[in-house]
User: What shape does this take?
Amino acid sequence: MLEFGSIWAALAPWGPLMAAAAAAALLADLGFRFGARLLQRAVADMPAAAIVARAIRAPAHWLLPMLATTVVWHGVDDGLAGLHLVQRATLMATIAVLTWLLARAVGGYGRAVIEANPVTAGDNLAARRIQTQTRVLTRTINSVIWLAGVSLMLMTIPAVRQVGASLLASAGVIGLIAGFAARPVLGNMIAGLQIGLSQPIRIQDVVIVEGEWGVIEEITRAYVVVRIWDDRRLVVPLQYWVEKPFQNWTRTSAELTGTVTLWVDYRLPLAPLRETLRKTCEASEHWDGRTALLQVTEAGERAMQLRALVTAANAGKAWDLRCEVREALVDFVQREYPQYLPRLRVDDSAGPRGDQAAP
Assistant: This one.
């Protein structure tokens, strides 16, 4: 009976305090709902602000009641049993929710920038540049925010803070070992910043990496996903793009020049073939109207090599245009000048054995 009385005596002062905390949380919730409606109306004509407001709605709904209860805890006499534990738990939860809110705000703003710069336009070079910078920087900033939030939460615990100070003061060798072990992670983080700022690659860039032709599909914190032409995915670490050479076909522009190579007999007239190339390009929806040129690029022992240069707005259209031109030129030669396809000539004018005199 005495034990129950002591427990009741310890908990009795918490009754009015919990009621005050509940009332403060309720008022904060009502204030949030009222403020959310006002904010929704205020940002109705601002797409970017509306996206950010939607992103932070959930953490803001939790943050305001926590701040209200924190005010209640700090207005109580410090001699109350268990108060410090409750204050510390509330502070840690507040830091966690505030970190969540900041991360959601950064992510929402990044999403707004990406939606404002779609890559579906024909000339999407600027949009791809902005999207790449936004994705990389958003993820990097969010990583820093969460790292800072977790650190602040741990610093609220005196024992952990003291252990951390002791480790920093006396464990230099361990720090060096940990730094060396984390070198790939830090290297990828720095490489991500380099890619975001200098932009050797961007989202939807056409690249040739490790002998594979593909499109940059995703840039994460640690690697880049390249969608290869046959729908395979090549996963390449971020450090690769700042340490090794690769081809970027859309670095300064999405426009490309494609080539089509043919081997034909020397007697084939070139004027009709040039006319066929011109008509094929004019009839194609993939040609951008810049270049349609036929040249003799090599004269071999048995045939001559022709190269057709054609241009298109992007890599996909350039590939389709090259296939159309190749098919049209081959069909024209087969139909109009089949005798001028490459062939092997044999000179039998000297007879079966040219080194013997006739009888």
Remarks:
- The first helix runs from residue 2 to 11.
- The first strand starts at residue 206 and ends at 209.
- The chain has three domains: 15-116, 123-250, 256-340.
- The CA atoms of residues 139 and 254 lie 26 Å apart.
